[in-house]
Specification:
Layout: H1 3-12, H2 28-44, E1 51-59, E2 69-70, E3 78-87, E4 95-101, E5 110-111, H3 120-128, E6 132-133
Parallel strand pairs: 5-6
Antiparallel strand pairs: 1-3, 2-3, 3-4
């Protein structure tokens, strides 16, 4: 495949069809696909009585990738960390819930306000804009 064709194809690939938020969210592109993965298993899979909580690493060598973490106890300690739940019965290693650990790159907007602003509609509107009340 020619390099130009490859760049055209990868330039058209996307993980989401949502509009980007009006604040910096370095994980915006993957939130919808992780949510769809979790929703698929929530509606189509019934886990057994035995489940295993675990941390998984998605290895990256680039320290500038969003959510880059270094977890020394892991065999591949550099990259993105995920917390997951896997089914542990009958040798079925089916991961059925995943949560990306955002680390230093999670959205960082917190606003302290008095009780006059603490109405449900206002709080939800702020939350949708990435501002979290305290």
């Amino acid at each position: 495949m020619a390099k130009g064709r490859f760049l055209q194809i990868t330039g058209a690939m996307t993980y989401t069809n949502n509009q980007p938020p009006n604040f910096e969210d370095k994980f915006f592109d993957v939130r919808q696909i992780i949510g769809a993965f979790n929703m698929h298993y929530e509606t189509n899979y019934s886990p057994s009585w035995l489940n295993c909580l675990d941390e998984s690493m998605s290895s990256w060598l680039n320290q500038h990738c969003p959510g880059f973490m270094y977890v020394p106890r892991k065999p591949h300690p550099s990259g993105n960390e995920y917390h997951s739940i896997a089914d542990g019965d009958q040798g079925k290693p089916i991961m059925w819930r995943v949560k990306l650990q955002e680390g230093k790159d999670r959205p960082k907007k917190i606003v302290t306000m008095d009780s006059g602003f603490c109405v449900t509609v206002g709080m939800l509107a702020l939350h949708d804009a990435g501002v979290f009340g305290q």
